[in-house]
């Protein structure tokens, strides 16, 4: 199996894992969502600590925190962003809003494009602008028809989109960054769990099966993130972009056909707008990828070296046949 094939398999497994998570959280429905979140953070921190120790990277992670204070602060913020995202997701699953979580993760790629423009100065192509406009129209349709803002969906999309923007701003190996993020939130989560216990508001002691499931939240949270990191280094982002729809599609099907959540005609219309937006986004990504590939092939035939992560641009000061021979980084 080639590296791209291994990467695609890892990405598919990661999104398959995430898509099936409603079953796991439903099994913990007897525990309050906030208590589940506290356990999820603490056990994730413990699991990533073990991984960091086994990989011999604990020293470098601690050194990174002391040497890169600005980036460390961003990772701390990212830890709380992803915790908020986890909390919204678990709460929504256990109170019967699985379809809203699905909508949130469908919207997420479009939110990421918007943040790329606002925070990193990335330029949107016409098709990308059309995709965002179509998604906004779908959300506005739901607001107008049902008189309600899909707060859970928007909250999930915005928190994960901001988390992704933070990850883009901080370049660090996945195990170390995940360790720093979880360890930054773990003290607050542990204090909260102790407060619940001493205040008599905790559901502890748990039965053995529930205890095992709560301890397993660390593995359930961290493993797909590590699979995703493995895939990201081996396949094109366009490929990952297509595979990522496995997760919200599975969640949509689980919410509709397993847990029988109501899907009104207006919510269905909103989903149709989002699906149309994603179709525009995906088609544009494919065409842009093909155009970039043709440009790279043309440069290769001319015997010109193309640096990694660089793209060609026209230089009008050069002769006509050589105008694509200078490069700048992305």
Automatic annotation (TrEMBL):
| Membrane-crossing residue ranges in chain numbering | 7-25, 37-54, 74-91, 151-166, 178-198, 210-230, 242-259, 265-283
- InterPro entries to which the protein is assigned, alphabetical: EamA_dom, EmrE-like, RarD
Q: Which Pfam families match?
A: EamA (PF00892)
* Signal peptide as annotated in the record: none
**Subcellular localization(s) per the UniProt record:** Cell membrane
Major subcellular location class: membrane
Membrane topology designation = Multi-pass membrane protein
Origin species: Synergistes jonesii
> What region holds the EamA domain?
6-141, 152-281
Q: Which family does it belong to?
A: Belongs to the EamA transporter family.
Q: What is this protein called?
A: EamA domain-containing protein
Q: What keywords are assigned to this protein?
A: Cell membrane, Membrane, Transmembrane, Transmembrane helix, Transport
Is Membrane tagged as a keyword?
A: yes
Annotated Gene Ontology cellular component terms: plasma membrane
